[in-house]
Amino acid sequence: MPTISTANDVQTVITTFEMTPGTCQDLMDELVDAYENFISKQPGFVGAGLHVNDAQTRIANYSQWARREDFLAMLRSDEMRARNRRINELCRSFEPVMYDVASSFH
């Protein structure tokens, strides 16, 4: 499970997806399948969450990895490259961005 904390020594990745309400569920199904059957089994995976806005036009994905290199290795794998091609067909755009936690509040 992801933990948002400045004391946590992990790589945080936030990915946003833009889509139409008509493809939102299909995209969510692809993302859930990717996490359940591939991403969560990769070395360095800590945890992730998927969030959908009310209009079903955006999905936000928050994931954490032990190291930046672990995330990049997963992203560059043949299986994830094939999955990303299918994901790309279901949305207008998506962009994974790596972040450091600068502050957190509980």
What does this structure look like?
The chain has 106 residues and is of the alpha+beta class. It has a single domain (11-99), classed as Alpha-Beta Plaits. The chain contains 3 helices and 4 strands; from the N terminus they run βαββααβ. The protein has a 4-stranded antiparallel beta sheet with strand order 2-3-1-4. The longest helix is centred in the N-terminal third of the chain and has 17 residues, at 21-37. The mean pLDDT is 95.
Give a short summary of the structure.
Keywords: Monooxygenase, Oxidoreductase. By secondary structure, the chain is an alpha+beta fold.
User: Reading side by side through the largest sheet, how are the strands ordered?
Assistant: 2-3-1-4
User: How far from one another are the termini?
Assistant: 16 Å
Please report which band the strand proportion falls in: under 5%, 5-15%, 15-25%, 25-35%, 35-45% or over 45%.
25-35%
User: How many structural domains in the coordinates?
Assistant: 1
Count of alpha and pi helical runs:
3
Pick out the low-confidence regions: none
The overall pLDDT, averaged over residues, is 95
Strand element count = 4
**Structural class, from secondary structure content?**
alpha+beta
Instruction: Give the name of the CATH architecture.
Output: 2-Layer Sandwich
Share of helix, binned:
25-40%
Helices and strands, in order, run as EHEEHHE
CATH topology, by name, is Alpha-Beta Plaits
Task: Using the alpha-carbon principal axes, give the shape.
Answer: globular
CATH classification, class level: Alpha Beta
